[in-house]
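Any chance you could type out a protein's amino acid sequence plus the matching C-alpha cells because I've never seen that pairing?

——
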Amino acid sequence: MNSMEVHYKNSFAAIKIGNYLAENMDNAAIVCIGTDKCIVDSLGPLTGTLLMKNNFNLDVYGTLDKPVHAMNIRDYIKFLKKKDYDNIIVVDACLSNKKSQGVIEVREGPITPGKGIGKLLPEIGDISIIGIVESTDKNFHNLVQETRLSLIFNMAEIICQGLVSAYNMRLTESYDQASISCL
C-alpha cells in the first residue's frame, strides 16, 4: 500500500480517498486528533464531528465536543489497544510548505501527533490521513492568526466523504461476495 495524495479541491478527492481505504474498513476505528481551541489544529475534531453527524457505522474517537489531543492521547492509545481493532485510521492536521497546502495524504503507518510543533507524543494508528493545513514557514502566532476555518472545514468534509465512501465500497463488496457465494 503506497501513499496517495490528492488536493481537497480535486473533484474526485473523496472517491480517491475512498478507493484507497476501502479494503481497510473491516473492524476499523477512526481516531481524529486535534483540538477545537485552535483552528489550525481542528481538522481532526471537525472530521470526527462530521462523521458522527453522518451516522458513520464505525467507532469514531475525537470530535469537537470530545477531542483526542495531547493531554489525553496516551489514555486513548491504551484504550484502543484493548479494543483489538484490525485497523486504526488516524486523521490529523499537518504543516508543510505553502505549495502543499490543501493536500490530503493517505498512507500506511502511524502518525506522530504534535511533531510539527515540537511536541513529543506517542505514535498512533495503522493508516494515516493527514491534511496539510498551513506552512511551516510561519511562526506559531501567525499560524493561529492566519489559518482560515473555511480551508479546515472543506478539507474535513472531503476526508469525511472519503471515509464514508470507503465504508460504503466495502459494504458493497461484501454484499457482492455474499451474493456470489449463495449462487
